[in-house]
Amino acid sequence: MRQSISQWLTLSGFETVTYASAVDALKVLRTDTPTVVVSDIRMPGIDGITFLKKLMHEDSGIPVILITGHGDVPMAVEAMQIGAWDFMEKPFDPDRLSDLVRKAIEARRTSLENRALRDELSDGPSLVGRLAGSSPEIAQLREDILDIGQSPLPVLIQGETGTGKTLVARALHAVGPHSQHQTMHHFLGLIPTDKHVESLFGTPDAPETGMLDKAAGGTLIIEDVETLSNDAQAQMVAWLNSDVPGAPRIISVCNAQDVNKGCEAVLSPVLFHRISQHRLVLPPLRARGDDILKLFVEMMRRAGEEYGCQPPTLSAQDAAQLMKAPWPGNIRQLSNMADRAVLQTRKENGTLTSLLMADNEVINSPAMIDEGKPLKEYVEAFERMLIDNTMRKHRGSIARVMEELCLPRRTLNEKMAKYALQRADYLD
Fold first, then answer.
1. Hey, which of 88, 271, 313, 364 has its CA 20 to 30 A from 226?
2. What is the per-residue burial (b if ≥16 Cβ within 10 Å, else e) of 8-21?
3. SS3 (DSSP) at 88
């Protein structure tokens, strides 16, 4: 069945990749592309419903089409409530499947384009400006990017999953000496190790087919550098030690989960030294204080615009739960949670706290901080968020903010000074 569906969709003009299990698909699936997932429901290991939940956790906007037997129709209806794009009952019309996939791809592509456009419009043309937040850690990261970006030396970027390593790599290129030239991404993790040398250096007869040659004059971002084969490591050292005219700047992204060891444990010492002449370790979200609330509110605002509904208002309990959660998936997980919170509000069903408590990855994460934070920190973070949101809502009108929050002028002024909020930032 899997092979026949793949063949039919290929003949219909789609590029298809098949996987024997949901586990295999989850290892390589990238959710930032116009991808559509077609899956059975009854499967060994991870079934289709669990698979759908995991995909919705990674990116609630990815279209998932489920194929089900007659007896599983109630289950498929449940899947639609979870977030599935559509489902088809066996036996199904293959032309309808092609039509569904085509519509899903078009919708997904439009959604991604709109998301990228909103990012550019709201954050400005500078990628550095998209590294939002005011915590000392993120402020230092922005300064480091501006400094290191001017250097032609190789950079190694490390950090936990979802901390924005690829965005930082693009920002380094945008502020660097090669910014007027192309930037190319090379995903080593998707390439068999015996093809690493050829993918980077091409063949002896056609070196121009290698990524190093294709990116000449610009920047080559190497993702999953920790997977580099031994042969490719040796050739990479030789290439880095040679003076290749027009050589691209190399930015390596390490996605190893152990940030303390990471690439250093799996790459040769010589190669690690060469690619990490500049090194950036991105802070996890849980270390960024009330940046969590600022980012979450902004993410919900954007999601509300995308889905055409008002985002929910955070309660003090919601704010405390957001700051207590360990966020093992970091920014990516926070963004997905914001999307789910807005969609849940549109359905008028459930609360943000219930969403957080139902997220097994959050509750069972080994990164859970047992000691928590002092109550004072939660209260101050919530208070700052509330004043900030109200100032935005009323576009800097002190009188209206005082009225809504029931605060005298002097108290409001003191709290704005305490939280470094400037009225001028909210005026039209």
1. 364
2. ebeeeeeeeeeeee
3. strand
First to last CA, the chain: 58
Q: What are phi and psi of 60, to 5 degrees?
A: -70, -5
* d(C-alpha 112, C-alpha 90), whole Å: 31
Residue 381: CB atoms within 10 A of its CB come to 23
Does the pLDDT at position 121 exceed 90? no
Mean pLDDT for the chain overall: 83
Residue whose tokens read 């066996």: 90
Q: What's the one-letter identity of residue 428?
A: D
What does 254-268 look like in DSSP terms, one character per residue? ---S-TTTTHHHHS-
For residue 248, give the DSSP letter.
P
* Nearest to 58, CA basis, from 394, 385, 366, 330: 330
Q: Which residue carries 């360990």 as its tokens?
A: 326
Q: Which long-range contacts (CB under 8 A, 24 or more apart) does 212-215 make?
A: 212/239, 212/244, 212/247, 212/248, 214/184, 215/182, 215/183, 215/184, 215/248
Structure tokens at 168: 């930082």
Residue 418 has pLDDT above 80, yes or no: yes
User: Residue 239 — pLDDT band, cuts 50, 70, 90?
Assistant: very high
Query: Is the whole model's pTM more than 0.90, yes or no?
Result: no
Note whether 97 and 89 are within 8 A (CB).
Answer: no
Which residues, at least 6 apart from 132, have a Cβ–Cβ distance to it below 8 Å? Answer: 123, 138, 291, 294, 295, 298
- pLDDT confidence of 271, banded at 50, 70, 90? very high
Nearest to 356 by CA among 388, 387, 312: 312
3-class secondary-structure state, position 192: coil
Identify the CA nearest to 249 among candidates 150, 358, 353.
Answer: 150
